[in-house]
Amino acid sequence: MLPRGFPEGRTVPQGRRFPGWADGASPGGTRVRPGAGAQEVSTSSVVLLPHAPASVVTARWQISTHLHEAGVVRPAIGDAAVVVSELLTNAIMHARPLPGARVLVAWALRERSLEVAVSDGGSMTRPRAAQPSLSSIGGRGLAIVEQLSCRWGVLASDFGLTVWAVLLVPGDGRAPGAATAARSGGAAAAGRHRAQPVRSDHAPRSQAARVLPTMWSAASRTGKVPDVELRVSSRSQGEHTIVTLAGEIDLYTAPRLESELLAAMRSANPAPQVVVDMSGVEFCDSTGMNVLLAAHREACEQGGDLALAAPRAPVRKILEVTGLASVFTVHDDLATLTRPAGQ
Q: Is 2 within a domain?
């Protein structure tokens, strides 16, 4: 059982060993060689956070900052942020907390891969990737994790569950020169294209989870986690109601988005024609997509529509991997969409 009172945001020094998270089983049926023990990594971090929606913001900021400092470029950082957000959202929404009402987030950056894990107090059901229909509200979080990672799985232990995922960070996923600077452990890291989650046969299976708190160093990560605010404004333009968003959409900010979209549709015509301007949205995970999908359904039931305009590349990627790009009408340019006929 994890002790209470551990400080938050502790960082493991370069060259420390990071334990594996898997018990040998993976979604693809791969068995991991037993007895391999811990693996050398470049850098790793463990963060103990409150079992609350705001922790999704904190964890995402922590891992994004860490990867940026390590020289990982934006697309790979974006995938990692989505995976952490989905795993942590799943733990907060569907699992019990660890003692002290906490959840534990850990990640290890290797030469060509990133391992992430989220530990909670367990739930009545084992996490599994669903295959929801395009019209279903919810159930896409672990499916997104499966799409963005090369392997993921679940480790049951004495205190609860750990859900882990491995993401590839190929050679061109680092800024120039960063791969060399990040090496630690020599031959242990060289040539590893796919990280292998492992456990030791010299200890109980739950050791991989119990050992995590022992990895904290004396110095905590510096820097203040920024406040995340979703800014929403609405205006009428011709037959359309334009809802402009700016910021990040996740478990913490989704309630604001839901209330604003409902208000916009209620103030529109009986058949609302709503266009959500996504050009200012820097991040959106499955929770945000669920809110947009629910609003789209309501607009259609009233004889109207809800379209998306100018989503950035990371948001487009989530639309594509979930299949929701075929549900929403997605416009590249808000100006073209709302330009009066004949102009």
A: no
Same domain, 173 and 296: no
CA gap 325, 343 in Å, rounded: 28
Q: Quick check: helix, strand or coil at residue 282?
A: strand
DSSP string, 165-181: EEEE--GGGB-TTHHHH
Residue with structure tokens 């492992």?
198
Q: pLDDT of 233-273, one tens digit each?
A: 999 888 899 999 999 999 999 999 999 999 988 887 788 89
Closest CA relative to residue 142, chosen from 25, 286, 340: 286
Note down the domain range covering 290.
Answer: 231-338
Answer with the one of 165, 189, 215 that is the final residue of a domain.
215
Extended strands (E) in 36-112: 39-40, 43-50, 102-109
Distance CA 271, CA 280 (A): 26
Written as six digits, the tokens of 297 are: 């359904």
Token couple for 313: 């590349």
Q: Is residue 299 part of a domain?
A: yes
If asked whether residues 314 and 276 sit together in one domain, one would say yes
Decide: 114 and 107 in contact? Cβ < 8 Å: yes
What's the pLDDT tens digit per position in 159-205?
899 999 999 986 544 554 444 333 333 222 222 233 333 333 333 33
Q: What local confidence, expressed as pLDDT, does residue 211 receive?
A: 35
Residue type at 113? S
Residue 150 and residue 264 share a domain: no
CA distances from 38 to 85, 156, 236 (A): 26, 18, 59
Q: Are residues 110 and 42 in the same domain?
A: yes
Can you say how many angstroms the Cα of residue 13 is from the centroid of all Cα atoms in its chain? 24
Q: Are 152 and 145 in contact (CB under 8 A)?
A: yes
68 & 204 share domain: yes
DSSP letter assigned to residue 125: S
Is 0.85 topped by the overall pTM?
no
Say how far apart CA 57 and CA 282 lie, in whole Å. 13
Count up the domains in the chain and report the number: 2
